Amino acid sequence: MEGKVTIYDIKTKQGRIQANDGNIYSFDALAFINKKDESLIKEGMSCSFEFIENKLSNFRLKDAEDFIFRNETFKEPSNLELISGELPTNYTLIDKAKVSIAKTDRIREKAIYKLKHDCKMLGANIVLDVKESTNIRSAMGYGFKFYTIEGVPATVGISDPKGTVSRADLSHRLLHKKIIKLKNNVETIKIANLALKICGVILFIIFLLGFIFTL
């Protein structure tokens, strides 16, 4: 027979099963075939068993480890962090974007703020593989230093039996389509700017040649 565990008291070692035949059956620790199941058992787990002469026996959990994995609860980091190296050992990586996001500003702190803000809006609670670079841009004869902060939006959790978020919550939070769209928009702008520069160079050469031939 098969059913689902509705309750199991680890102290009294007594439990109940809601069976597929509609009946509720009681059992105790002596019913376990595999003693490891007693340490894994949780409400809602599927199981199989035999019920002969008003006694439940041959109790076995079905896919217990998968159930625990899917129903694990977490607490989230208190602040959205930027991580450039290894993920802290107490963090479990749940989901990670396929592309990175970059933000640039003349003030380093503003670039960091922009990256954190956008990643949070896109569902992340952490930013991984963070890189920082600087470049000089010229305007009106002056050079200005710009900071670029780049990272990959992700979701992590800290395993906690009393946690308020589930693995499913964290695994469906990242807005992957919007992240890719944002990345593509940035690349399109870069290509457009490059095309304008090339056109400018070509026009300058044409103008220069025209000027030379008129001499």
Q: What would your notes on this structure say?
A:
By secondary structure, this protein is an alpha+beta fold. It has two domains: 69 residues, OB fold (Dihydrolipoamide Acetyltransferase, E2P) (Beta Barrel), CATH 2.40.50; 105 residues, Translation Initiation Factor IF3, CATH 3.30.110. 33% of the residues lie in helices and 39% in strands. The chain contains five helices and twelve strands. Strands 6, 7, 8, 9, 10, 11 and 12 form a seven-stranded mixed β-sheet that branches. Strands 3-2-1-4-5 form a five-stranded antiparallel β-sheet, with no helix packed on it. The longest helix is centred in the last third of the chain and has 38 residues. The protein starts with a strand and ends with a helix.
Task: Please provide a brief summary of the model.
With 215 residues, the chain is α+β, with helices and mostly antiparallel strands. The protein has five helices and twelve strands.
Kindly report the average pLDDT value. 87
Total E-strand runs: 12
Estimated structural class: alpha+beta
Poorly predicted residue ranges: none
Strand content: 35-45%
The coarse overall form would be elongated
How would a textbook summarize the main sheet?
A: 7 strands, mixed
How widely separated are the two ends? Answer: 101 Å
| Overall tally of structural domains | 2
CATH topology of the largest domain: Translation Initiation Factor IF3
The CATH architecture of the largest domain comes to 2-Layer Sandwich
Keywords: Membrane, Transmembrane, Transmembrane helix
